[in-house]
Write a structure and sequence with these properties.
297 residues, Rossmann fold, N-(1-d-carboxylethyl)-l-norvaline Dehydrogenase, domain 2, 6-stranded parallel beta sheet, 14 helices, 53% helix, 2-hydroxy-3-oxopropionate reductase activity, NAD binding, 6-PGluconate_DH-like_C_sf, EC 1.1.1.60, oxidoreductase
């Protein structure tokens, strides 16, 4: 069966990339991966994938190249230049960038790739580490309908809600909106947690009943235990949400949209980072509220 499936190259095996690439292997795809950390390459090989020694080696025979790296500079570093994807992938290949980057970077990449005969989709995801592991990610896509249709079976092995949002860059725009909503939502939950605790209420009981009503959300469901246990082991790091808040505030300025609450939360995320909490999960926005409320964090 695996012979008829497209050969996949996967670049970037981090918190998201590792479980996602493994889900493709489970679905029967041949996956050749490249990343900077040797132990991540070993993990891919142990899961049945093939570790490559370079980007060029990984993408050479691939029908589909998938990238999952932290930000625009990394996407540019792996895509461009003599050792990059565009110079080494075969003409006709499909490049699916699942990183969360600026919409403009995606538009520029699609344009540059077209000259090489390579098609591009921007396909950032939401759902965090748990969503990646469980293959229930929300995948927002920008690009051509025909390329989206071709990539659909691959997306279906990775996620549950898969939507073509418009031309190149549209996936990134929707992802930026997603990150705005998530950050504001976490901030509201964090403020509620501090308020409830200072009021002497049973926090677990309070969060359970709140989550059953209109205040309930996927954010609260996913982050409840982080709040209760003060467990901020990163599923999604503050550093990355800081990057994303920069993307959404910048993109909003460019199109003339005001984000008053988003701008405040962007500053709170930046302050957490300045206080050394950048490596913690974004639910650690709770720490900022605690500090503002006089707690020794």
């Amino acid at each position: 069966m695996s012979n008829s499936l497209p050969k996949i190259a996967w670049i970037g095996l981090g918190i998201m990339g590792s479980p996602m690439s493994e889900n493709l292997i489970k679905a029967g795809y041949q996956v050749t991966g490249y990343t900077l950390e040797q132990e991540k390459l070993d993990r891919l090989a142990a899961a049945g994938g093939t570790a490559a020694g370079s980007i060029a080696e990984a993408v050479r025979d691939a029908d589909v190249v998938i990238t999952m790296v932290p930000a625009s500079p990394q996407v540019e570093a792996i895509a461009y230049g003599p050792d990059g994807i565009l110079e080494n992938a075969k003409s006709g290949a499909l490049l699916i960038d699942m990183s969360s980057i600026t919409p403009q970077t995606s538009v520029d990449l699609a344009k540059a790739a077209k000259d090489k005969g390579i098609r591009v989709l921007d396909a950032p995801v939401s759902g965090g580490e748990a969503g990646a592991v469980e293959a229930v990610l929300s995948i927002m896509v920008g690009g051509e309908q025909a390329d989206f249709d071709e990539a659909k079976p691959i997306f279906e092995a990775l996620g549950k809600t898969i939507v073509l949002c418009g031309p190149h860059g549209s996936g990134q725009t929707v992802k930026a909106a997603n990150q705005l909503i998530v950050a504001v939502n976490i901030q509201a939950c964090a403020e509620a947690v501090v308020f409830l605790e200072k009021s002497g209420v049973d926090l677990k009981a309070a969060l359970d009943v709140l989550n059953g009503g209109l205040a309930g959300s996927t954010v609260l469901t996913r982050k409840k235990d982080n709040f209760l246990n003060r467990d901020f082991k990163p599923g999604f790091r503050i550093d990355l949400h800081h990057k994303d808040m920069g993307i959404v505030t910048d993109a909003a300025r460019n199109v003339g949209a005001a984000l008053p609450v988003g701008a405040v939360v962007a500053q709170l995320v930046a302050s957490l980072r300045a206080q050394g909490d950048g490596g913690l999960d974004h639910s650690a926005l709770l720490r900022a509220v605690e500090r503002l409320s006089g707690a020794q964090v």
